[in-house]
Every structure is written in structure tokens, then in C-alpha cells.
């Protein structure tokens, strides 16, 4: 069997040849990091204890799943049941787990304004579409209004 011909378009740089900060930037591991942090947070929560927590909550995941997640060796995003199991195991809110999974597996970056009503979201969306100089003018008007209210 012959070795394949070199592919000049394929990057052959190994991780060992890259600066640590670049490797860190290349690796999206937000969810894996959460699992590692719980495992190494000083309270001694083992991967088996995480598996037990997930099972007790009705979302069973194996210890080996947690080992693979901590090592960032799971290539597919977890489904809803697994996300719930991870939330129970790590004792983190499901929203935190879901967001970490979205960042790790989908390169998601949050842009929504959670916790605000529709009026605020419309105002922010409107301001976001303005040129920087126009936004500064609106900011100055809002700040002037706040100062005037304090002086009353």
C-alpha cells in the first residue's frame, strides 16, 4: 500500500507548533470546560458522581460520556435529553448548558436581549442599525435627560 501524495492545501501544522493562546482560540470547548470545572472545582465531584446525578434526575449519562465530554472528544452536539442530563450532573441551569453547547458545537454567539420586553428590544435594534455618530447623539440625549431628571 502506498502513502498518499502530499496535499499542499491541507494544513499540516500540529497543535504543538502553535502558541498556547492560538490553540485555545481554535478549540471551542465551553461545554467540555464546564464539565472539567465541576470535576476540578475543589469539592471533588467525580465523573461517576456526575453520572449518578444525571441518572437520579431521570436523564442518565454514563461515566464514559462525561470522560469524553471533559476531554472534548465528543464531535456531535448533545441532544435535549443529554443537555438536561449535563445540567443535572453539573448542577448548572439548563440555559447555561445549552448556551455552552451552542458555542462549542455551533460557534454560536449570543445576540439576543434576554430579560427585556419588546419595547427595549425594538429600541436597541433601532440603535444598532445607526451609524456610530448617530448613536453617540442618541446617547448624549439620553444622558442629558437623566441629568435633568436628577437635577429636578
Descriptive report:
The protein is mainly α and 152 residues long. Helices cover 59% and strands 0% of the residues. It contains eight helices and no strands. Helix 2 (30-39) crosses helix 6 (94-106) and helix 3 packs across helix 4 (63-70). It is elongated and about 60 Å long. Mean pLDDT is 80; it is low at 1-13.
In short:
This protein is mainly α.
List keywords for this structure.
152 residues, mainly alpha, 0% strand, disordered N terminus
Question: How many strands appear in the DSSP assignment?
Answer: 0
Element order: H for helix, E for strand: HHHHHHHH
The end-to-end span amounts to 86 Å
Oligomer: single chain
Helix content: 55-70%
Helix/strand structural class: mainly alpha
What is the arithmetic mean of pLDDT? 80
Number of helices: 8
Instruction: Please compute the radius of gyration using only Cα atoms.
Output: 23 Å
Spans with pLDDT under 50 lasting ≥5 residues?
Answer: 1-13
Mind sketching the topology for me?
Blueprint: H1 20-26, H2 30-39, H3 47-56, H4 63-70, H5 80-90, H6 94-106, H7 118-128, H8 132-151
Helix pairs in contact: 2-6, 3-4, 3-5, 5-6
Amino acid at each position: 500500500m502506498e502513502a498518499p501524495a502530499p496535499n499542499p492545501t491541507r494544513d499540516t501544522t500540529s497543535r504543538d507548533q502553535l502558541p498556547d493562546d492560538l490553540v485555545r482560540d481554535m478549540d471551542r470547548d465551553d461545554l467540555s470546560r464546564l464539565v472539567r470545572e465541576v470535576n476540578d472545582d475543589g469539592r471533588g465531584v467525580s465523573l461517576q458522581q456526575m453520572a449518578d446525578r444525571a441518572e437520579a434526575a431521570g436523564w442518565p449519562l454514563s461515566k464514559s460520556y462525561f470522560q469524553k465530554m471533559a476531554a472534548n472528544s465528543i464531535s456531535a452536539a448533545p441532544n435535549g435529553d443529554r443537555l438536561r442530563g449535563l445540567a443535572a450532573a453539573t448542577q448548572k441551569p439548563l440555559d447555561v448548558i445549552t448556551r455552552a453547547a451552542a458555542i462549542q458545537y455551533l460557534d454560536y454567539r449570543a445576540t439576543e436581549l434576554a430579560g427585556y420586553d419588546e419595547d427595549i428590544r425594538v429600541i436597541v435594534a433601532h440603535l444598532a442599525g445607526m451609524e456610530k455618530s448617530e448613536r453617540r447623539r442618541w446617547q448624549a440625549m439620553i444622558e442629558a435627560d437623566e441629568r435633568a431628571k436628577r437635577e429636578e
